[in-house]
Write the structure tokens for this entry.
Amino acid sequence: METIFWYCLAGGILFAISTLLLGDLLSGIVEALFEWGIPFLHPYTIVGSITVFGGAGLILLRTTEQAHVVIILIAAGIAFFSHYLLYIFYVKPIQNSENSTAFRFSDLVGREGEVTISVPEAGYGEVMIFTSAGHTNQIAASHQHTPIPEGTLVKVVATREHTLYVVPHSPMERN
């Protein structure tokens, strides 16, 4: 029984050291292998709980006079509890903090921007729209069919066929 606990503890420690050394490469491989679609079964929580199982089992073997079955059950309980704690305090906050720069084109309606290439009355120019992740340059047309010179602040009022339809907008106007 002690051998199993040592293997669990050593395997977890080796995984932690290799993750530290190989970083994202190993992380990507492990996550691809363990991609079950169940967020609670994250590879790091699984390996962490196996490591805790091994460590707790070794400690219990050496400090108590309990039967092996009882030690296994207690070590498993400690491992499940550590799995939960790792998920709640490590994995979930990291997953929630992952940022994406992606946006839907329709989400740009109502956003403000600046004309970077003049928009003619019957043609296309370019505007820089400010988003939460930075800015994006997009093709634009005048919604009112009036020319809009470069440097003018505009507001997106519609989107069609990958084109933003904009109107001049002063910073004092707030809807």
Remarks:
- The chain has two domains: 2-97, 105-168.
- The longest strand covers residues 134-142.
- DSSP finds four helices and five strands in the chain.
- The longest helix spans residues 68-97.
